[in-house]
Amino acid sequence: MGSTKPLRLIQHKKEALWFYSFISFGYDHVFNPGQYTEDMRDISLEHARLHSRALKVVDVGGGTGFTTLGVVRYVDPENVTLLDQSPHQLDKARKKKALRGIKIMEGDAEDLPFPTDTFDRYVSAGSIEYWPDPQRGIREAYRVLSADGVACMIGPVRPTFWLSRFFADMWMLFPTEEESRHKAETPPCSLVRRLRMLASHM
Fold it and tell me: How far apart are CA 152 and CA 21, in angstroms?
């Protein structure tokens, strides 16, 4: 029995493209600081294990390069690629002095324009909630990673307060509990979970 999904203002990455193109003029100084701070970014990036400046890293859905700025603190810029679907956001990234030397390109998170086994690290912040098919995006992440690569996906937490949750559900693509449970039982998530269980018994 199917469930009726709530109406969301941004229901697809196409709407996200329009929205972020519109707010790109003030994204770094007005819209982003209240939701994703440098401290939050740096703590999150610890999970990416950026322990070598020679690592090849891709930041998918990186927009104006806010997360990429955290990456280049640990990795040489020439080894970093920033990909986003919004040319307006990428124009902002190109103007940042610290990001000179990185590769900047337009692209789709669910159809990455890279060969298999291209990168050592995959980073994506504030992007997955706009993907119509997150499973496809995750598969793409692991396709472009080397065998011992690490994927670090950073996203918002669904609010618990009812009023905040109401507006968040209207705005973002937060999955319902039923949708989350289904995704957890579907590859590649189910495969990752089984591998972790196997490793814990070794």
Answer: 25
Considering only 25-29, 36-40, 90-94, 111-115, which range has the smallest mean pLDDT?
Answer: 25-29
- Given a contact cutoff of 8 angstroms between Cβ atoms, the answer to whether 102 and 80 are in contact is yes
Alpha helix positions (H), the chain: 13-23, 38-45, 66-71, 87-94, 134-144, 162-171, 177-184, 189-200
Per-residue pLDDT reduced to its tens digit, 143-192: 999 999 999 998 776 667 777 677 666 655 555 556 656 655 665 554 44
Confidence at 21, pLDDT banded by 50, 70, 90: low
pTM: 0.71
Q: Which of 14, 31, 27 is nearest to 91 (CA)?
A: 27
How many angstroms separate the CA atoms of 99 and 77, rounded?
7
- Measured over the CA atoms of residue 6, residue 152, residue 143 and residue 104, the dihedral's sign is positive
* Residue 23 in tokens: 């707010």
Whether the pLDDT of residue 114 is over 70: the answer is yes
β-pair partners for 58:
81, 122
Q: Is 84 exposed, middle or buried (CB count within 10 Å of its CB: 0-12, 13-18, 19+)? A: buried
62 contacts 83 by C-beta, under 8 angstroms: yes
Domains of the chain: 13-156 (3.40.50.150), 157-202 (no CATH)
Phi/psi of residue 151, each to 5°?
-105, 130
